[in-house]
Specification:
This protein has about 350 residues and is α/β, with parallel strands linked by helices. It is about 30% helix and about 15% strand. The strands form 3 sheets. The protein has an 8-stranded parallel β-barrel. Strand 1 (about 5-10) and strand 2 (about 10-15) form a beta hairpin. The two termini are about 30 Å apart.
Length: about 350
């Protein structure tokens, strides 16, 4: 099966086309990875590639409890332990760098959350002090956006120090990069707003800053054109995301990771495949059979699995043999200790 064939991702030789998707697990107290994470990730090193859980690039970037950071020595040292364990087990691991933007809250860091425009998210946010309304965000002036760009660059620098094989920029699910890109959340009139070309300026500046620490073929970018998390959206999503895909392709990054949630009658992979010339990773609900199908029809190059990896650290072997998978338990996704994480 093509799912189990080797794949060359830039200069990374992957033993199979199965990717472990980024999965927030809320088990990093103080924004520092625990010893449990060392075991959690190393047990899954048979994946062709591991994409780490979303890791915040600054204190202000945190959007939920007990998620890891990568902007100081202590955080990077904890991640280094994880990376070394994965490498020792024969695996490859990439750091997903994220910033929650307007999805954050001052209860986490004592500051107003950052956002491209003063658009408050729908719904509520869980904070260390309880469930609350989202806050009116801080909107950086044109000259202040550079500081947000630098946060990603600093995290990439620490990722390189920790030994990660690459980084993936979290531009999906309503996070800050997504907020700058989509018209519902970006109402700016400066060079970071306006038309789709202006709205992707922030993403491309972040990418250029990160390239100071990793070559383009070791960098990926994730998008979710079909997502509408907390009111994220765009007046022309196909045009906006195909334009971004073309720009990322021209920048010669290694991969585009697409959360393949339907957008109307189309899956995003269907209209992005021809726009991006690098490796295409798809995720969201794929099974052994559907993954094999999209690979056989050249609709993607790699397939990421999330929930299946939570209960099946040996997922690659189980899929290869066609064995029954253990069912995941949603009650342990974002809470608890070892249960549902390394047990």
């Amino acid at each position: 099966m093509k799912l189990f064939e080797p794949y060359l991702l830039g200069d990374l030789q992957l033993p199979n086309r199965i990717v472990m998707a980024p999965m927030t697990r809320n088990r990093s107290p103080g924004q520092i990875q625990s010893d449990w994470a060392v075991e959690h990730y190393s047990l899954r090193a048979t994946a062709g590639l591991i994409l780490s859980e979303s890791t915040q690039v600054s204190a202000r970037a945190q959007g939920s409890a007990d998620t890891p950071g990568l902007y100081n020595q202590a955080q990077a040292t904890a991640w280094k332990n994880v990376v070394e364990a994965v490498h020792d087990a024969g695996g490859r691991i990439v750091a997903q760098l994220g910033h929650a933007g307007r999805l954050s809250h001052s209860d986490y860091h004592g500051q107003k959350p950052a956002a491209p425009s003063p658009v408050i998210p729908e719904g509520f946010v869980r904070t260390p002090l309880g469930t609350k309304n989202y806050e009116d965000p801080w909107v950086p002036a044109t000259a202040e956006v550079a500081a947000l760009v630098e946060e990603f660059a600093l995290a990439a620098k620490w990722a390189r120090w920790a030994g990660f094989d690459g980084v993936e920029l979290h531009g999906a699910h309503g996070f800050l990069l997504d907020q700058f890109l989509q018209s519902a959340t970006n109402r700016r009139t400066d060079r970071y707003g306006g038309d789709a070309a202006g709205r992707r300026t922030f993403a491309l500046e972040v990418l250029q800053a990160v390239m100071a620490h990793f070559p383009g073929h070791r960098i990926g970018y994730t998008v979710s054109p079909g997502g509408n998390h907390k009111g994220i959206g765009d007046s022309d999503p196909i045009g906006t995301f195909t334009g971004l895909a073309r720009a990322l392709s021209q920048a010669r990054i290694g991969w585009l990771h697409v959360a393949d949630l339907p957008l109307g009658e189309l899956k995003p992979s269907e209209f992005l495949r021809g726009e991006f010339q690098g490796t295409l990773i798809v995720s969201e609900g794929y099974t052994r059979d559907s993954a094999q199908e999209i690979l056989e029809h050249n609709g993607a190059d790699l397939v990421a699995f999330g929930k299946a990896f939570t209960a099946n650290p040996d997922l690659v072997d189980l899929l290869r043999r066609g064995d029954r998978l253990e069912l995941h338990d949603p009650k342990t996704f974002y809470a608890g200790g070892k249960t549902g994480y390394i047990e």
